[in-house]
Fold this sequence. Notes:
The protein is α/β, with parallel strands linked by helices. The protein has helices at 2-22, 28-36, 71-76, 78-82, 120-130, 148-164, 174-180, and strands at residues 41-46, 61-67, 87-92, 105-111, 131-142, 184-192, 202-209. Strands 3-2-1-4-5-7-6 form a seven-stranded mixed beta sheet, sandwiched between helices. The longest helix is centred in the N-terminal third of the chain and has 21 residues, at 2-22.
Amino acid sequence: MALEVVMGYYGDRVVPRILNVACAMGEAGTLRRRVCDGLEGVVIEIGFGSGLNVPFYPAAVTRVDAVEPNDVGWGLAQKRLNETPVEVRRAGLDGQRLPFADDTYDCALSTWTLCTIPDADAALREIRRVLKPGGRLFFIEHGLAPDEKVRHWQHRMDPLQQRLFAGCHLTRPIADLITGAGFVLADVDSFYEKGAPRMMGADTLGTAVAP
């Protein structure tokens, strides 16, 4: 029980602070700007975290509904929220069960989030449900690498990764998950993130359309 308490504290209080720093390093800002390009209208962002995408919202975005379960992450976002002209509201806590009506949003945004959500399939189906027909999912996610040698180490290190980073998986096949939820991929770019270990930096960036 004591270990569970410690790990719970670590996941709830420490990991968000680590991610607030680590997920802003290297080329993360360039990639966030790239994935946010084209967002418009009313947007739902799952895994909002500490608001690292906020500075990159285009002027065409009228409102962002942020889905973020962690209070520490939301608190760390306040400085960024105070500096943006975009209306951002914390509107949900669980990406697997979104408290919104069907066909609500013009766009959805997910950045390095699907690795951590326990049921990524459920979250993607929910995103598709709340998007308007023709609405777009903008995403960048790390996941299963294209190279067998890298995949071998991803599978070996995945249990440790989950313990260190609050359930983060290394081995999820991002494009397959998105199409499996009923999305149609519009464009996809898969690459290794510069400066990141290949095991953790096999990224997939693109957009997908909700039919």
